[in-house]
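Lecture notes, continued. The same structure-token format from the folding unit now serves as the input rather than the output. Read the line below as a description of shape only.
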């Protein structure tokens, strides 16, 4: 399609993409049917490739966990899918929805017109924090069944989201600016092997490490089950009461970095040199057992000793893993950086753009964005090769930000691509039979129960 013609088409339909949301379900159905019957071009045609994954996820049933009644006639699943899609394509804030002109953004969610910002804010206001977290749990349990998570080794970390508005909200130390700022912390658990997020929880500042970690880890254990063997986190979480809970109550392994207080440095310096053995990189390693405050028994302390500029340096790693070789435990901790990379990657989904200061709204938005991320991750996993590890923004640019023409004929919605990555073709040929073989009904509930059919020309 000529971009100039598409630009004219967008211009002609611009005012039709607005909505005052005061529509009945029948009106919404008619608007969607008309948009599909007339047909339209969209720059986000690749996003429609995600719908089969959402069907496999059972997204409509899991959205029921949010316990939000219809408002202004728009079904809850269409509100959630609109927010999910806006996040995937990198739209920054709910307030920017008024600038959306591409009809594909609305139709993806089963809407003929995109709701205005006030609708989305009202919707998020109605979600309770506990219900947002339950929605996250149910979706992640299903992603686990779909093979997206291994869950054997889980990383845990916090991400600070700054707030620059006028409302009063607690302050916390910014991780890079080294100043105290207003904001909210979002904690994530993350599959170390696959690189995918499992659970997210928002909290105001002032909580202790155990107050943050224990609910996070229990929810993650509920999702992963007995396959969850080890949790890895940085030294902020390295407190005896939390480590004792993980060891005694959860019965899983932990690996964390020792806080280098002077007494701990002296403890490591006192270890006789002959107890160390040399590693492949020239550093030396050993272990001892040590006492921790609020920890029953002793923890294993793995000590790394090396010289830098003629000075002895020490790192310590705390763990309750008595079986694994010390080098392996240190390697597991080193791979914790995967969650740091994820937290940078997920900025594309605009997790840093708070929908407000209310914890329930933030929790709902974060849960929806996590589900959106994992949905895209299902696609990149199936594409495979080098794409399996490509960041979400790269997947969007390569596979989702692809022009398509969308039009319905009878009970089918035909999505036609004229320029497309060839890797997509084998995945989506015979799609509906593939869905049926997995026990998935190919009819899309939010698209008036029509069936998608993809064409690559």
């Amino acid at each position: 399609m000529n971009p100039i013609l598409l630009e004219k088409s967008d211009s002609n339909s611009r005012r039709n993409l607005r909505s005052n949301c005061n529509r009945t379900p029948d009106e919404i159905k008619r608007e969607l049917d008309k948009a599909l019957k007339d047909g339209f071009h969209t720059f986000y045609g690749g996003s429609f490739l995600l719908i089969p994954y959402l069907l496999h996820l059972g997204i409509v049933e899991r959205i029921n966990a949010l316990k939000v009644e219809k408002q202004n006639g728009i079904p809850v699943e269409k509100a959630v899918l609109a927010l999910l899609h806006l996040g995937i394509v990198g739209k920054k804030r709910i307030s920017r929805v008024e600038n959306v002109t591409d009809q594909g953004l609305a139709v993806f969610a089963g809407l003929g017109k995109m709701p205005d910002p006030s609708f989305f804010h009202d919707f998020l206001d109605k979600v309770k924090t506990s219900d947002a977290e339950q929605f996250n749990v149910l979706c992640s349990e299903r992603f686990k069944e779909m093979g997206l998570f291994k869950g054997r080794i889980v990383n845990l970390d916090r991400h600070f989201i700054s707030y620059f508005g006028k409302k009063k909200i607690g302050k916390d130390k910014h991780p890079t600016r080294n100043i105290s700022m207003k904001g909210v912390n979002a904690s994530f658990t993350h599959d170390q092997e696959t690189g995918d997020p499992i659970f997210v929880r928002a909290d105001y500042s002032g909580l202790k490490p155990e107050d943050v970690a224990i609910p996070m880890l229990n929810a993650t254990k509920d999702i992963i089950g007995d396959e969850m063997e080890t949790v890895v986190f940085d030294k902020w979480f390295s407190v005896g009461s939390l480590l004792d809970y993980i060891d005694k109550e959860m019965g899983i392994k932990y690996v964390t970095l020792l806080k280098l207080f002077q007494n701990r440095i002296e403890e490591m310096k006192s270890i006789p040199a002959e107890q160390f053995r040399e590693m492949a990189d020239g550093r030396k390693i050993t272990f001892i057992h040590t006492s921790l405050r609020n920890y029953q028994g002793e923890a294993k302390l793995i000590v790394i000793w090396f010289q830098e500029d003629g000075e002895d340096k020490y790192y310590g790693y705390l763990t309750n893993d008595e079986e694994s070789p010390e080098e392996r435990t240190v390697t597991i901790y080193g791979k914790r950086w995967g969650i740091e990379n994820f937290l940078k990657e997920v900025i594309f989904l605009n997790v840093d753009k708070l929908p407000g200061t209310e914890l329930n709204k933030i929790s709902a938005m974060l849960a929806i964005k996590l589900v959106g991320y994992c949905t895209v991750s299902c696609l990149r996993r199936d594409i495979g090769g080098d794409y399996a590890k490509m960041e979400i923004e790269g997947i969007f640019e390569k596979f989702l930000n692809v022009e398509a023409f969308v039009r319905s004929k009878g009970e089918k919605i035909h999505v036609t691509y004229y320029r497309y990555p060839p890797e997509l073709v084998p995945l989506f040929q015979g799609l509906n039979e593939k869905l049926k073989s997995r026990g998935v009904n190919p009819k899309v509930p939010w698209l008036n129960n029509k069936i998608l059919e993809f064409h690559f020309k």
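Point for the exam: The CA atoms of residues 57 and 142 lie 6 Å apart.
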